[in-house]
Every structure is written in C-alpha cells, then in structure tokens.
Amino acid sequence: MSHTAHIPSHRKPRQRASKSALRAGVAGGVLSTIAVAGAAGPAQAEPVTQTIEMPTITSGFSTAVAASAQATQQVALDLETQADEDAAAEKAAKTAKKAHAEAVRKAEAKKKAEAAAKARAEAEAKERAERASRTSERTTLSASSGSSDSSGSSASAPSSSSNVSGSAASIVAFAKAQVGDAYVPGGTGPNSWDCSGLVQAAYRTAGIDLPRVSQSQSTFGTQVSLDNLQPGDILYWGSAGSAYHVAIYVGGGEFVGAQNSNTGTVQRSLDYDRPTGAVRVL
Predict the structure, then answer these.
(1) pTM for the whole thing?
(2) Cα angle 266, 267, 268; round to 5
(3) Average of per-residue pLDDT values in the chain
C-alpha cells in the first residue's frame, strides 16, 4: 500500500462523462419529441423544389422609359409637321392675297390709263380745233399789220385793245394765238410754254432775241409805268432783275401769259393779277 493512498486529491472530479451523457439525453429527447410530433401530426407537403424567376424591375422600367421617349419624339414630330403645314398655308394665303391685290391694282391702272387716253384724245382733238382757229386769227392779224405798214397808218384794233402796229402787232398776235396752250416748266413751244419761254418766242417773231429767263427779261428794256403801257410791253411780277413771272401786255388793259399748270396760257385783265412793273423793248 502506498503511503499516499489515503491522501485526498485536490483536483476536481472529471465531469466529461456526465455532461456528455446529459447532452446526449437532451438531444435524444428533442429528437424523440420531433419524431413523436411527426408521427402524430398531419402529413407534411413535399418541399417545393422548382425555382421561379421574378421579373427584373429595372428591365421593365427601361422599356417603359424607352416607349415614353419614343412617344414624346413622335408627338414632337407631329407638332413640327403641323407647324410646317400651318406656315405653308399662311404663306400661300399671303401670296394669294398679294396676287389679288396686284391684279386689282393692275386692273385699276389699266382703267385709269384707258380713261386718260380717252381724255387725252379728246383734248388733242379740241386743241387741234382751237389751234386751227388761232392760226386763222393770226393770219388775219398779220395781214392787217402788213397792210398798215405799207400804207403808213395803223390798223384799227378790236375794241378790247389799243391800236397795234408793226413789230408790236406781230408779238401780240403770236401771244394771243397761244392762248389755251399748256403750261409746262421749261416749255418753249410749240404747244406748251412756261412764262419766259412764251415771251421769248413772241419777241422772236419780231426778230428780237430776248434772254431766256424772266429775271433777265425784266431788265432787258426800259422800265415804264403801269399807267403808260403799250401793246408788246413785257410785264413782270417781283422785283426787276429778280422777277418770278413775266407776260405780254396786249392792250385794252389785258395781258397774255403762261400762268401755271392749272390755267395754262391765258388772256386776262391786269386786275386779275396785278403786275409789279413793266419794260419796253420796242
């Protein structure tokens, strides 16, 4: 017998075997319970082994967005097409309106041109008749003045004018023969005159070459009083040397002058438009 046989050991007794047994018992109890419950309970359905694939949300969203974008683009194209059609229709309407207005304008212009041509033809016919009458009158006056020169005595003039002879008679006759002609700025005849053009042409029949413009004609001869006028004197309106209008005194208190575009060449009383002064060239 060992001398240590009765010495108690201070090490704790091993518990592995008991714990293992306990654990085994617990596990066995649990398994037994599960087995009993399985035997006592209703039959369980077989586990589902088929795998179901759920649709991918991201993929469906992308398709919807693409469809929406396509629809938006189509709407934009439709709007653009409609806008182009509206613009084309508006342009066509404006073109048609402009063409209509142009047609109306041309029709009115044609109508006016025809009316003007008719009026011009009538005026020309009237003018030819008047000119023929004036030519006859001028021939009679010229013959009368020639007879006066050869006999050495002056011919008796109409009661509306003073006695006229020689160069004055020629000037007066020419001026009167142009009554009714048109007034045209710069006109020198034979059918249209301005004031100084008529005076210059009248004096040319007497062999006298006057300056062309009224300013120079108003100082060409000797200044005379309006109370001492003789047929053939040049009347002027404005200042001498800066006159703006001239005419020919034809006797009897009357003058002949190319007045303006409204009246043309007229024979009027001095009271109709009182002149400023007069010059005598003869």
Answers:
(1) 0.46
(2) 110
(3) 77
